[in-house]
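Worked example 4.2. Below are the chains of a multi-component assembly; read each line carefully before continuing.
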Amino acid sequence: MSKGQSKAGVAAGSLRNRLVITLIGVAAVLTLLFYFVIRAYAAQIALQSQDNILGASVTAMLDAAIIREGVVKVDLPYAAFSMLNTESDDRVFYAIYENNSLLSGYTDLPLPQRESRMSSTYRSGTYLDVPIRQVTASRVLVGADTRTRITATVAQTQDSLSGTLQRIARNAALYGAGFFSLAVLLAIWAISSTIGPLKRLTESVARRGPQDLSPIVKPVPTEMVPLVSSLNQLMQRLDESFTQSEDFIAEAAHRVRTPLATVRSHAEITLQRVDKEENRQALRSMIRAIDESSRAAGQLLDHAMITFRANQLDYQPIDLVALAREFVRRLTPLADMKDIELRLSTDETVMVSGDAILIQNAVRNLIDNALKYSPSESAIVIQVYATPAPHLSITDEGAGFPDDEIGMLTGRFARGKNAAGTIGSGLGLTIAQDVAAAHGGTLSIGNTKEGGACVTFWF
Amino acid sequence: MRYILVLMLLFWAAQVQAVEWEDQQLFKGQSGARTLRVISSTDTAIFAPVIESFLQSNPSLNIDYKVAISADIYSEFRKNPDQYDVVVSSAMDLQLKLVNDGFAQPVEGVAHPEWAQWRSSLFGFTLESASIVINKAAFENLPVPDSRQEMIEVMRANPDTFSGRIGTYDVRQSGLGYLFATQDARASETYWRLMEIMGSLRTRLYCCSGAMIDDLANGTLVISYNVLGSYASAREDVADKIEVILPSDFPNTMMRTALVASKTLNSGAATLFMRHLISSRWSNPDSENIPLPPLTTFQDNSQQSIIALNPGLMVFLDDMKRKTFIDEWESAIIQP
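Applying the procedure described above to all two chains together yields the following structure tokens:
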């Protein structure tokens, strides 16, 4: 668990977008298919009706053919052509053949090569450079001693047909567009109703408090049950591991501090008893080493606890002024022993929201540092103000930070060059820095003009 | 080789000379640079006002106006489709056939009723009825016929008055006459009975309405059948001598139609002329441009008797059908 910058998951495409693209793509394909099928079907029907009329015209022409005095006559009925009248005034061409010689009509109208000579032949082609539809049929006339085949062919341009087709195509396109829009709306609705439970699950997980590692019990769609089960298992394991960590930290603090305190009190008692100066000296350095170990252990545990808590801060309203005043009250006896004056300069109240345990820890470490590095007969000023942003600063009158090391002092176990003679683990600034970062604030370190160190904790 | 060339020249000359022009006149615009070639079956005198009003608004054009009978116009234009820009004719069937066979180009953007145009290429701009025209003086003591049936009756009752003094179109020559005859025959059997009677009374045959009206006015004819009433009404000089009767049973009504040649090199000018012809006649029926009845005349009442512009018109142009019809007609009207 690091400092919390990689909390967001890595996104590889969006489920919603994928659904949108798939559903709309399918709708588009279906719409196009619909359009082309309708158009092809309409074209077929329109062509069929033109064929029917042309066929009727040919039949009327053939029916009018008779043999009179051995000569074939075709008395064209008026209807044969007037029935071919169309909305677009299509042009009409025709030809009548007796066996293979032209009786009447357009000489160069091509006669289709025919497979079955009895049934009607329908073909599309061009005549006089315009597209035509042509129907050809024939009939056998039986005279006194002859059999004559009469073939009639009628062709018509396709202006009206293409007009009809254009109209149908336009309507089909309109309907298609309508269906497509409807499909898109339905797809959007379907997608949001599908994504809904996932979103609700996400929200309910995100809304949980930092200590809430209880399993998710709300019913979810079948497909999401494995995910929720895994999530529940993971949280259970986390819960267990957190509990173990807390137990371990508490245990370690207890186990290390208590024996050290015991050893220290024995050493002090022994110091009272021995008279030999060299023995007393040895005992004093022993006590100092014990203090150092005790303090280092405390800070290590603090640091461990901060790292543990930083990922799940327990936010509460805290009055910084009250907190600072409490420290001053508690530490004044210790400061008096070193002839150091603790001065407090504050607003009325400065309320911030934060994890009380962590902030207390950070402030205690900072004041400890200041006490440690302050010469006797000096003052430490603690200022708490709400503007420009809530902050707490601690200024001493010691030697200050070495200018060239300010940037690296908050590193773990880093100690300034001038700290050689002082007890410390190098974790104090690190702890304060981690707490500030966990609260979204900063810790600024600098020196005053007179040379003292000044550390400001910004929220 | 030389002979061939001479022969070709002769042949070409023969082709050019093939049409008998009734009239030819060049109307000059004020600054006439290009000449629009119009062939028409309408007499120059009747058509001149519309040409002049066109040239007034388009002074950079000339109009070469040639008049022939409708059948000649058809055959001449088919032979030399690139020699003419606009074709005006009263024979609707022949005009429709020209359009059907691709000799005309569409004129776009003309507001014209659907029933008075075909393929946006052929536009009707007058409505003229086939009428019975009589010499007033000759009918002083006779009942004036109001229909074909009454005409048959009056002729049958007075053979001496009518013998040799009845006129009608020679349908073999006149395209319009053929159109009227075929439409008559389609409509009623009365037509053939009328032809039988007229044949028995030695009917005179004419190429054109104008000649018939002249003969009616000077008393050569007593009655003529299927004359263009519009022509007769337009002739103010004979107005007191003749009377135009619209047959009450069914008046065949034709539209004078115009088309722009597909091979014209003056497409723009020809289109302008067509627009002028059509719109001035349709949108402004009161204009005195042509003394012929405009389309609107008959709009309300007897539209059903207007010969419809549809492919059916081509039926009687079929060679076999035409031959059959003419044989029948000849056997009725030409009696020894």
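Take a moment to check your reading of the output against the notes. The two ends of chain B are 51 Å apart (CA to CA). Residues 139 and 309 of chain B are 37 Å apart (CA to CA).
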